[in-house]
Amino acid sequence: MRLWMLGSGSKGNAVLVESGDTRVLVDAGFSARRLAERLTAIGIAPASVQALLLTHEHSDHVSAVQRAVKRWKWPVHATEGTLRGAGELLEGASTHVIARGVPFTVGDLRIEPFGTSHDAADPVGFVATSVCSGARTAVVTDLGCVTDEVRTAVQRVDVLVLESNHDEGLLESGPYPWHLKRRVGGKHGHLSNRAAGELSMHCLHKGLKQIVLAHLSETNNSPAVAHESMQRVLRRTRYKGELAVAPQHGVVGPFGDGGGPGGQLTLF
């Protein structure tokens, strides 16, 4: 199993997961043209993607859906709430209703949706397991707090893509108006660096090979701050894997199957 981050942050999100000949895309928050550029840069034909999995309906996760689905005929898998929220973006698409806690299969991948705490209709994260190899990857972003459901879902994964959206001090002292600070830092907002560190501690086991920090705020965080915050946590453990930060404006990967931290392509 391999994973690429095609870009992550408030301006767009997309994650490619591959196992054997099976490829799925988690979210499509860029233009169809930009998605095509980034997929092509890593040698992936967009038409070879077999399914689009949506975490929720916010624009930085669905903005390419309408054109991408029309162009490449991707089947869309999403909760009923997300499908309603995406509305006309899914007109003419082949849609499949999924539910938290109910696994489904796409090719060699067994996908397990789990609920997240975010201000969307019915948001989820995903754990993808290779039926052939047993390798497991979790994608968990856009959550204001870590619930027992999340903790249980992301146990014993090999690759963990984890939101590390903001530094609490930077958010508090930053330029956002009070209502937006309250939203970002609330239980249905985004995960802080501190909370990401706490969840990573809960996930540590000898098989965890890679942690990828995702959905960083460009205003209330930085790659260096997020990386150092997580490193402080990991230094107190026996973690021997890799730590990477996903950029907003580039592709990073592949992660998994011994691929290490991967390389980065900058594609503005």
From TrEMBL:
Residues 11-188 form the Metallo-beta-lactamase domain. It comes from the Bacteria. InterPro entries: Metallo-B-lactamas (IPR001279), RibonucZ/Hydroxyglut_hydro (IPR036866), WalJ/YycJ-like (IPR052533). Gene3D superfamilies: Ribonuclease Z/Hydroxyacylglutathione hydrolase-like. This is Beta-lactamase domain protein. Transmembrane segments: none annotated. Pfam families: Lactamase_B_2. It comes from Gemmatirosa kalamazoonensis.
